[in-house]
Amino acid sequence: MNIVVTVKQVPDTWAEKKLDAADKTVDRQSVDNVMNEMDEYGVEEALKIKEAHGGEVTVVTMGPAKAVETIRKALSMGADKAVHLSDDALHGSDALATSAALAKVISTLSPDIVITSSEASDARGGVIGALLAERLGLPQLTQARKVTVDPASSTVQIERLADNGYALVEASLPVVVGVVEKINQPRYPSFKGIMAAKKKPLTTLSAADAGLDAAAVGLAGAASTVVTSEPAPPRSSGTIVKDEGDGGTKVAEFLAVQKLI
Amino acid sequence: MAEVLVLVEHADGEPKKVTAELLTLARSFGEPAAVFLGAPGTYAKAKDYLAQFGAAKVYVAESDDIAGYVGAPAAEIVAGLVGTASPAAVLVAATADSREVAARIAAKIDSGLIWDATALTPELVATQGIFGGSTIVTSKVTKGVPVVVVRPNATAPEAAPGTPTEQIVDVVISDAAKGAKIVDRVVEAKSGRPDLTEAQVVVSGGRGLGAAEHFALVEKLADTLGAAVGASRAATDAGWYPHQNQVGQTGKTVSPQLYIAVGISGAIQHRAGMQTSKTIVAVNKDPEAPIFEFADYGLVGDLFNVVPQLTSEIEQRKAG
Ligand SMILES: Cc1cc2nc3c(=O)[nH]c(=O)nc-3n(C[C@H](O)[C@H](O)[C@H](O)COP(=O)(O)OP(=O)(O)OC[C@H]3O[C@@H](n4cnc5c(N)ncnc54)[C@H](O)[C@@H]3O)c2cc1C
Ligand SMILES: Nc1ncnc2c1ncn2[C@@H]1O[C@H](COP(=O)(O)O)[C@@H](O)[C@H]1O
């Protein structure tokens, strides 16, 4: 099984995030960055499939030079090799350009399964999985809380989250799978894994190496733009009351005053 | 006036409230043209509703191929309609399924995509809360026909009764779009309560409830308020409540008039899914819980005392 898993480096969940004042893109320089937490579930699922059926796991990321830290993390969890698409020309790419660039790189790897996670915590688009399926012309098995691969019939079945339950969705390989965080419990890198990661193959590609048209990516190629940006008005600080035995009544009074009941 | 394509959000033909919201929004800058995609025989249930909320036109595409495969067939049809109708924009509801369809539409028609808009001006400038709502941006599409994914509760729906023209769409789905076949749908949670993302009031329970059976307290309070029930990830991971009810970064995003958090600490990932609620009430026994930093009304106390009292107090006020 040739498995590709996408990972993204994002500002740390707890960091105070902001947009760059000049070009209104996510400021990735002045904050601590981590692997998008959801992508840990993607990597874990890739490793699980490899452990069950054999094969190789390739990590793909697009991001600035320091995104290599996130690649190292995926390799130390157990992925076999990595491709890092990194070029200043890619800075400011929107989801459409990102998916086009990733698709271009991924198609050269001839995967059986491409795994993304359902959402990156920086822009919270939740669209790259669907876009990769569109761009690669592969079945879209996104929103998966369970993935079952059957090598004998070359099919994959998932449980796709739905509003009132789930849908069983089936497709023939190759496929794009998008995982939600219910799917597994990501492993921690072991010391041995961390040491081994340093020796694993890593290919760094420029936009030109990947065969990308510079005008179609980055800020130049973005199909939408941020016009204005400002801090949200602070929530007026609320009333905090300690229960003295009449807490429920107090809440009801508050709701009545607010005309909410 | 140019058409504005509105993808109808429905369950087996029954329209969701967000559809009326999108039609209302579309009317502010164009001619609302509803796009109904569903299994054969489902449109009949949506027809009156779409007319009631001002659809000037309805494109009706009914086919087993639409309901039978994930994402791609819907995108193919809408992209085709964009080609023939040259609309001013495509509006789609911010639901898990539809946002993926919207993305594929944008890719097919080579246009810009904006997600999670909470407002949209007639000039098509969208408002979005980013970074968990700490920053408000306005943004616009600079290429092609804007595809805008709009949050439920972004607009108040207004009726505008009329008689839309209906155009039956000849559905031909490519083989490439029939890759991800839906072989079964399994219903796990049917509650009779309002939809979480559309509800005006949401009552959510967290780890503080301590056990699945204690969710009955939350449900009872919710029912006196006509509310939907939500849960934190700690509660859904523990199996106390279905994950479909999870609120937060990796669950549903809700924006009700009133959000009541019961036994929820208010972790950043939970906050990401509920902090645009108009009024936030929290019940938590820990005065240091982060939820109190952004609640409008915080009650420091044991939920097992507070919630039953609150429920009966509301019942009494309703009766009296
Ligand atoms: C990738 C990722 C995605 C995530 N996505 C989500 C998400 O979508 N939604 C989400 O909710 N979380 C999400 N989380 C988890 C999040 O970080 C928190 O762990 C979770 O929200 C905590 O749930 P909780 O508040 O119910 O539990 P806790 O943090 O344990 O809080 C329980 C609260 O109940 C109070 N309490 C206990 N007993 C009582 C009592 N008798 N009376 C009153 N109060 C009581 C306690 O004081 C405490 O504040 C995510 C985490 C990660 C890493
Ligand atoms: N620049 C990127 N490089 C690699 N993977 C990405 C990138 N952006 C998004 N992804 C993948 O797509 C998923 C969904 O991202 P998004 O649609 O941006 O929320 C992420 O969790 C990643 O797995």
Question: What's this, in brief?
Answer:
The complex is a heterodimer of chains A (261) and B (320). Chain A has 261 residues and is an alpha/beta fold. Chain A has helices spanning 37-53, 68-77, 95-107, 128-136, 191-197, 218-221, 247-257; strands at residues 2-6, 9-11, 33-35, 56-62, 81-85, 113-117, 140-150, 155-162, 165-172, 175-179, 202-205, 224-231, 239-242.
Notes on the protein architecture:
The complex is a heterodimer of chains A (261) and B (320). Helices cover 27% and strands 29% of the residues of chain A. With 261 residues, chain A is α/β, with parallel strands linked by helices. The model of chain A has no long low-confidence stretch (mean pLDDT 95). Chain A has a single domain (2-221), classed as Rossmann fold (3-Layer(aba) Sandwich). In chain A, a hairpin with a 4-residue loop joins strand 7 (140-150) and strand 8 (155-162). Chain A is built from 7 helices and 13 strands. Chain B has 2 domains: 3-177, 3-Layer(aba) Sandwich (Rossmann fold); 201-319, 3-Layer(aba) Sandwich (Rossmann fold). In chain B, the strands form 4 sheets. Chain B has a 7-stranded parallel sheet, sandwiched between helices. A 5-stranded parallel sheet of chain B has the order 15-14-16-17-18. In chain B, strand 9 (126-130) and strand 10 (135-141) form a beta hairpin. At the A-B interface, helix 3, helix 4, strand 7, strand 8 and strand 9 of A face helix 5, strand 7, strand 10, strand 13 and helix 7 of B. Adenosine monophosphate (AMP) binds at residues 6-8, 36, 38-39, 42, 61-63, 95, 98, 102, 116-117, 119-120, 123-128 of chain A.
